[in-house]
Description:
Blueprint: H1 11-42, H2 46-62, H3 64-73, H4 79-94, H5 100-128, H6 133-162, H7 171-188, H8 199-205, H9 210-240, H10 246-274, H11 276-296, H12 299-314, H13 317-327, H14 332-348, H15 350-361, H16 363-372, H17 374-382
Helix pairs in contact: 1-2, 1-4, 1-5, 1-6, 1-7, 2-5, 2-14, 3-5, 3-14, 4-5, 4-7, 5-6, 5-14, 6-10, 6-13, 9-10, 9-12, 9-13, 9-14, 9-15, 9-16, 9-17, 10-11, 10-12, 11-12, 11-16, 11-17, 13-14, 15-16
Amino acid sequence: MSEISNKGVDRRAMAGLSAGHLFTDLNQGAVAALLPFLISERGISLAAAGALLFAATVSSSIVQPLFGIFSDRRPLHALMPLGVLLAGCGMALVGVAPTYPVILLCVVMSGIGVAAFHPEAARFANYVSGSGRARGMSFFSVGGNVGFALGPALTTPLVLLFGLPGALFLALPAIVMAAVLFHELPRMLGFKPEVVESEQERVAAAPEHRGPFVRMIGVVTVRSFVYFGLVAFVASYYERVLDMSPALGNTALTLMLFGGAAGTLTMGPLADRFGRRKVLVACMLALPPLVLCFTLAGPFVGMALLVLVGAATVGTFGITVVMGQEYLPGRIGLAAGITMGLSIGLGGVGAPVLGLVADNAGLSFTMLVIAVLPVPGLLLALTLPRGK
């Protein structure tokens, strides 16, 4: 491994990667913000709007492992800046696309850009983190968390001011960020480990641990069920169960998301100091009582609890990416594609399932279901190896 990679996190390189993550995932948050305007101004149906959201999820999440496999076999470092560029330009063109099939094509193009960016960027986040991998991956992950939250906050005012063509402005940060990443690529390549001379040496030096990897993916999928369920129903819970205003419900959800960003920055250093498994187990152990206490608390105490829920749920995203790369050290692109894309995408299936539960049994019961969901994840986490 190169001499520079044995140091701690390189701040300049990580800042570029985290910013790239932000401006890539910003477009994922923009999809949901554009749907109401597409319904009202273009007259698309609710089913067609749902199909757009599904297409964005499939193209950005489920496809990521394919890019991971490709980047492991033939690393194409330009996928980072090109992914940002494609994600932003695809979403920008949604605002001026003349027909629904073209709108769908633009959404898919943006999703493919998101999928292309993540495995290669996560590979370099691993490289530039040196000995502080969990800390570095947390910095990388928080960029995506912030970007997803900023997507609606940036897109909605643009469309309100300029109509749907206002989405064209989303191309500007993508173009700038792509240029920055192209400029920084030569420097970041200096952190890349030296190539092992033969396949036999690579396998001997970096054995794979597929069983723990599969079990950890189970933990990530369960965690994603919890995350998407909370994102989908926290605001409605405040409005329908706690009899609060929609604005207060959205505020509670926002606090939970910011708690997740803060947790991401906190959990990484803790994982480097005390161990990845210990932090993951502690978070999965904390989630059931935290969610249960939220259902018993009032609206304002509930907000404080939601901050902790967000920290425990989102805070381990970067940690599990690092764990996946350590379990499959010879295929870190594939590991990142699965932990950041496929398993989270599969977890997203939980939102409509929990929606059916809410329709039939009510939101209060649904929150209790969400409180129980981390238990199988905890049991799986306890089976993971104690060391790396």
